[in-house]
Design a protein that fits this description.
Elements (H helix, E strand, L loop, with lengths): L15 H11 L6 H31 L8 H10 L4
Length: 85
């Protein structure tokens, strides 16, 4: 069974336009402002984590570039198996 995470209340200041947009998004829906903001934060944090992973991946390739010659034999075999028509 998954336990419920303890939530802490934080104060976030929004301007009138932001509140109006949030209210339009939740109108008639099942969510409230807090739920929508929590989901938006989760999406943002996931995007940041994915971006950082992409940066680490690119840095790894810069440190240890792929040896294209390694794959030349495989490419030749593939061309023999599936020649151009």
């Amino acid at each position: 069974m998954v336990g419920r995470m303890v939530r802490k209340q934080v104060l976030v200041q929004l301007d009138d336009a932001q509140i109006a947009q949030l209210d339009r998004l939740i109108a008639g829906g099942e969510d409230n402002r807090s739920g929508l903001i929590r989901r938006a934060i989760d999406l943002y944090l996931d995007a940041v984590a994915e971006g950082l992973a992409d940066v680490r991946y690119a840095e790894a390739y810069r440190r240890i570039p792929e040896e294209l010659d390694e794959h030349a034999g495989l490419r030749a075999l593939a061309l023999e198996a599936w020649p151009d028509r």
